[in-house]
Amino acid sequence: CEQREKGIDTIMQSPVDGKEVARAFSQGDELAERLIKRSAGYIGMLMYNINAILDMDRFVLGGGLLHICPGYIEDVRSAFNALSKVRVDIAAAELKDDFGIIGAALLLKE
Predict the structure, then answer these.
(1) CA 110 to CA 73: how far, in whole Å?
(2) Over the stretch 46-58, which tens digit does the pLDDT of each residue have?
(3) How far is CA 82 from CA 41, 72, 89, in A?
(4) Nearest of 44, 104, 108, 36 to residue 68 by alpha carbon
(5) What is the DSSP string of 52-103?
(6) Which of 98, 91, 83, 18 is nearest to 50 (CA)?
(7) Which of 14-18, 19-23, 88-92 has the highest mean pLDDT?
(8) Cβ-based neighbour number of residue 72 at 10 Å
(9) In whole angstroms, what is the distance from residue 62 CA to residue 40 CA?
(10) Is 34 within 8 Å of 40 (Cβ atoms)?
(11) Which of the pair, 48 or 69, is modelled with greater confidence?
(12) Residue 36's pLDDT is what?
C-alpha cells in the first residue's frame, strides 16, 4: 500500500476495497480511520451541493459504514453543517439494508 511509504502504517492489503477498509477499521487501523473520516467529509459536501440545487428537507443515509463506524453520521452532519447555513435533517435509514427491496415493493403496489 502506498501509504506505508508516507509513514502511515496500515494492515490493509491490496487491492483495497470497502470490505478491506471495514476490516482494517474494525482492527483500529489508522489509515482506514482516516479514509472513513475523509469519506464522511465528502458525503457531507455532496449533500450540501445536492441541497443547494434541490432544497432538501431531509437526507436519509444507509449502508455499511453506518453499521461499522460509530459516529459516521455525526461526521457527515458536521461536514454538511460546516458548509451550510441552512439546517437539514440528516438521519440513518430505519430499514437498514432492506430499504431497496421495501421501496421496490411499494412502487409495485402503486
Answers:
(1) 32
(2) 999 999 999 999 9
(3) 10, 15, 14
(4) 36
(5) HHH--SEEEE-SHHHHHSTTHHHHHHHHHHHH-SS--EEEE-TTGGGHHHHH
(6) 83
(7) 88-92
(8) 21
(9) 13
(10) no
(11) 48
(12) 93
**Residues 71, 72, 75, 81: is their CA dihedral positive or negative?**
negative
Residue 64 near residue 22, CB atoms below 8 Å = yes
Query: Does the pTM exceed 0.90?
Result: no
Alpha-carbon dihedral angle through residues 72, 77, 83, 85, given to the nearest 10 degrees: -170
* 8 Å CB contact between 67 and 92: no
Q: Which of 67, 3, 5 is nearest to 30 (CA)?
A: 3
Q: Which of 90, 99, 96, 95 is nearest to 44 (CA)?
A: 90
